[in-house]
């Protein structure tokens, strides 16, 4: 019989050799874990740098009661790395951290405590604060969700999966059983890969978990800090991010839709986002080209509007109708 641990910290990483040391330092300094059985696993998602060598160096001198494990996942995309992490995890709870997320000293302990207090929760996300290399643009809070920043107050509250209100895949804790019982073994959305910025891969498993009857929560006692380098605040990157967040919208809405609802969702997705786009366009038509925040919002709504057509082009009409 498999002996389960209390908690697994799972870190999908692509070319993370320079980022992982600080994250591992934060995990080595976790407090109030004396009575917890836990582990750290790194899933190297086909890195081309020295990620593997960095982890082997750590493993060679590792003297902590919780093990540090390394796995290689050749299938590119964060969704595949997360699936591999779930397969390998020994924890009843799995806490995902991206390699550019730095957890507070009590992140592990607070993640476990929340799971005990809210047994109906299948997943719960952290407060995620921006750790910016340079000052973000004015009014950046309007689009900070695109960069996985979540600050929803100091009280626990429910996300609304039916409205695609969900926590990002970074700094989230899931119950392994809830995942294994509900999430398909092959993701539809694989995540950002070189040359393709389509998002939604972190929402996809949560929608399946919610369909299985589990709640998705925001846990304000878990804090992480998302390191955001200067280039991730540049106009072209932000626009590509907004585009990727929009193009997956229709596909995400289909996950829990019945067949008879699909044509309705098709029309609503187009008309609803066209309306939002036009309202913003009219509001900022005199300054839109100079306001990067407004441009990102319009790019998101435009991409959301065309997301049904993007899906049809991608998989073909025959597959869609079946």
Helical content stands at: 25-40%
Low-confidence stretches: 317-322
> Mean pLDDT across all residues, rounded?
93
What proportion strand? 15-25%
CATH topology of the largest domain: Spore Coat Polysaccharide Biosynthesis Protein SpsA, Chain A
Report, as a whole number of angstroms, the end-to-end distance.
Answer: 40 Å
Number of strands: 9
Summing up helix and strand content along with how strands pair, one would put the structural category as: alpha/beta
In CATH, the architecture of the largest domain is: Alpha-Beta Complex
**What does the radius of gyration come to?**
20 Å
Identify the CATH class of the largest domain.
Alpha Beta
Largest sheet: 9 strands, mixed
What is the ordering of alpha helices and beta strands? Answer: EHEHEHEEHEEEHHEHHHHHH
Number of helices: 12
In total, the number of domains comes to 2
What would you note in describing this structure?
This protein is an alpha/beta fold and 322 residues long. It folds into 2 domains: 5-233, Spore Coat Polysaccharide Biosynthesis Protein SpsA, Chain A; 237-321. 40% of the residues lie in helices and 19% in strands. Strands 1, 2, 3, 4, 5, 6, 7, 8 and 9 form a 9-stranded mixed sheet that branches. Strand 1, helix 1 and strand 2 (38-44) form a beta-alpha-beta unit. The longest helix has 23 residues, at 262-284. The termini are far apart. The relative contact order is 0.13. The model is unreliable at 317-322 (pLDDT under 50).
């Amino acid at each position: 019989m498999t002996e389960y641990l209390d908690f697994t910290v799972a870190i999908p990483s692509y070319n993370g050799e320079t980022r992982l040391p600080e994250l591992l330092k934060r995990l080595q300094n976790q407090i109030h874990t004396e009575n917890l059985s836990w582990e750290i696993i790194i899933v190297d998602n086909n890195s081309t740098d020295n990620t593997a060598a960095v982890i082997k160096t750590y493993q060679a001198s590792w003297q902590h009661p919780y093990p540090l494990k390394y796995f290689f996942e050749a299938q590119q995309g964060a969704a595949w790395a997360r699936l591999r992490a779930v397969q390998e995890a020994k924890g009843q709870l799995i806490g995902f951290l991206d390699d550019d997320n730095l957890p507070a000293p009590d992140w592990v302990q607070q993640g476990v405590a929340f799971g005990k207090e809210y047994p109906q929760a299948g997943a719960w996300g952290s407060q995620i604060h921006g750790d910016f290399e340079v000052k973000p643009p004015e009014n950046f809070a309007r689009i900070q969700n695109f960069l996985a920043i979540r600050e929803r107050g100091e009280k626990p509250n429910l996300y609304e999966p039916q409205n695609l209100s969900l926590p990002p895949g970074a700094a989230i804790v899931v119950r392994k059983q809830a995942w294994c019982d509900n999430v398909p073994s092959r993701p539809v959305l694989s995540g950002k890969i070189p040359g393709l910025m389509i998002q939604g891969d972190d929402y996809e498993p949560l929608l399946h978990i919610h369909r299985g009857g589990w709640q998705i929560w925001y846990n304000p006692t878990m804090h992480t800090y998302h390191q955001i380098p200067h280039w991730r605040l540049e106009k072209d990157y932000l626009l590509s991010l907004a585009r990727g967040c929009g193009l997956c919208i229709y596909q995400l809405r289909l996950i829990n839709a019945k067949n008879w609802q699909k044509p309705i969702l098709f029309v609503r997705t187009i008309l609803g986002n066209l309306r939002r786009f036009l309202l913003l366009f009219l509001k900022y038509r005199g300054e839109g080209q100079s306001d990067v925040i407004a441009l990102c919002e319009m790019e998101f709504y435009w991409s959301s509007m065309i997301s049904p057509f993007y899906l049809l082009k991608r998989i073909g009409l025959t597959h869609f109708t079946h």
